[in-house]
Amino acid sequence: MVPTAYYLVLGAVLFCIGIASFLIRRSVITIFMSIELMLNAVNLTFVAFAHMWGQVSGQIFVFFVMVVAAAEAAVGLAIIIALFRVRQTLNVDQVNLLKN
After folding, report:
1. Could you give the count of Cα atoms lying within 13 Å of 47 in the half-sphere of its Cβ?
2. CA-to-CA distance for 11 and 17, rounded, in angstroms?
3. How far from chain centre, in Å, is Cα 63?
4. Cβ atoms of 11 and 48 closer than 8 Å
């Protein structure tokens, strides 16, 4: 059996990778995937704690996070497609619609 600490470390590493790629990369798609990676890292942590304490509340939170992630994916991809149609780029430095 794998100890819970390994799952927590894996979740922390995945969350840090998500934050780093969110801050470093300039593509909207990469930023979008980074957010999904951070949400999955949080889900892994919720499941690890739920398993450690024998509760189902962590798994219920995971369900809600997955619902929010699915909604975010649907709305985010629609925004990305609309943005690409208008600007012909997905670089966040070149997309500043609210500036003028």
Report:
1. 15
2. 10
3. 14
4. yes
